Predict the 3D structure of the following.
Amino acid sequence: MSKDERRKVDENSKDEQLEYYRTDNRGKKMTTNQGVRISEDEHSLKAGTRGPTLMEDFHFREKITHFDHERIPERVVHARGFGAHGHFQVYEPMTKYTKAKFLQDPSVKTPVFVRFSTVAGSRGSGDTVRDVRGFAVKFYTEEGNYDLVGNNIPVFFIQDAIKFPDLVHAFKPEPHNEIPQASTAHDTFWDFVANNQETAHMIMWAMSDRAIPRSYRMMEGFGVHTFRFVNDKGKARFVKFHWKPVLGVHSLVWDEAQKIAGKDPDFHRRDLWEAIERGDGAEYELGVQMIDEEDEFKFDFDILDPTKLWPEEMIPVRIIGKMTLNRNQDNVFAETEQAAFHPGNVVPGIDFTNDPLLQGRLFSYTDTQLIRLGSPNFHEIPINRPVCPFHNNQYDGYHRMTINTGPVAYHKNSLQQNDPAPASEEEGGYIHYQEKVEGRKIRRRSDSFKDHFSQAKLFWNSMSPVEKEHIVSAFRFEVGKVKSKDVRKQVVEMFNKVDRKLAKQMAAGVGVKPPEKDESSKVTLKSPALSQENTRKSPLTRTVAILAEDGFNHSEVIRVLTAFLKAGLVPDVISSHLGAVRGDNGKEIEAGNTLQTADSVLYDAVYIPGGKDSIERLKKQKAALDFINEAFSHFKAIGAASEGVDLLTSAAGIRALSEPGIVTAASGDALDAFSKELIEAVGMHRHWERTV
């Protein structure tokens, strides 16, 4: 395939392929699925107007049968998901490291489909629960589909895939009463943790703010496992994959996350959908960490252990490309629900390692798709279909789309001249890396996998004081929900092996005595890259609630709104009613939400414009005062101008205008400086030094 031909394999190629399957029923006549036109769709065929329905009513049977079967089994894990389309472009040729073609030409846009998800909850659970988030990317490359199936946390709970059923059974609702949904705050999960201490590092991440992201657009993604890059000379390097969000890594606070789950359980999917619809989309840079094969054993951790990360300060992340998500799904079921990901879907230049968790996933994912999608032909569903041609002698099965011709369904053969024939390496055939493997058959893990606490301590050391405080609170909430005092005691004793101070703070909150002996890990290293305090900060796409009633200062609002929009903020006017809100000069703006349909937890910041009549009306509404107070307690930026300052100080009870993240303007003359300062405060995400 020439370079020009390769360029045709861009994001439009997948769109064109899907176009055949898209349908629009406007102006069309109703038919059965066989194409027969239907004359009546209100009444089934009966023997008389009051008689029984007849078996021969083929339209009724088809319609009901399809309805009865229109739900497929949800995924056991990652059931609640949401996806988007886009493209990936590499920044520079990676020829030195891998022969994967989609990583060679910066001018080529490789189409992608990404599915984000929670892990523990069912399809009907909330988006903002404390949980790991799935981050699965399907690259539709000219060499076939490549799936990078990862999470927003770089490590995992267990080291060997044989433990995966045990882990999932532990964190799912307890089987005797099917409680609790989408939560690990119960006995069986923490009993599993305490008795499988390889979970220590992952639990530290899960109890951190990483488990309650602000947005899919503001969370990292990781391939989790160690893979291999292989170049065209056959040289291999170990590699880990990272997705770095352009907007930085930001999280909710726990109180906020719980309230959003009730106010808007679709918060994350709505955020992604609306961002793409208004043209903002989502961007992530792809980074790789690489280790030469000869350096495999030079570290104090096993690089194949999925409960370990490679510290970025030790093995730097090299940024090699960018993924842009810019098109929403046409149909969530047809695309997100039927998307079949598999870490075993690789292309030449990307290979596997002996990570025992990865090895198990290479079996499990195919097995899962067979039961969910009902057939080995799930690759023919449009969302899973590669953009390049595919040829083999695999025939038949449920839902077969391909119409195979000729008498031959086997290899080798002479009747069809052994066609399709295997491709050589020079012709793009996938050649597995020839790793030398020796050893006795044994059910045991390497001794190099036995250290469960050093990196858990590294993570703890790397957190800011606020992040540590949040981790302690998360432990107290989760373990505090455990009924068994013995399990609570075991958990505290386990994390005493991470850090003594952490264990003592946990113990004080969950009703058990702190361990007498200090067994803290002796690790003193820090990794600044692990703290969200060191992330990128930007006001782009941040949402601002504007509280206004009739009589607001119209000229002020227009000036501030103009500055907001120029800075990339997303403002929303909130009033006591939808529709037109009249300003002090008689001009109107549109309220997009009311104090009954909106809540401060759904926004990043609050702006209270002046206008005497507007402020007097807001003072009389408890919902408005609660809105401001809650935003303050969640450390968000709040701006108030002229009379709005009075509402902020006297009515809402904000103790001091000097509090971090509180921006005020006494008059319209200072609006430009006010807008600039408020925009900067919004871009900081939170103001943790505030006294609340």
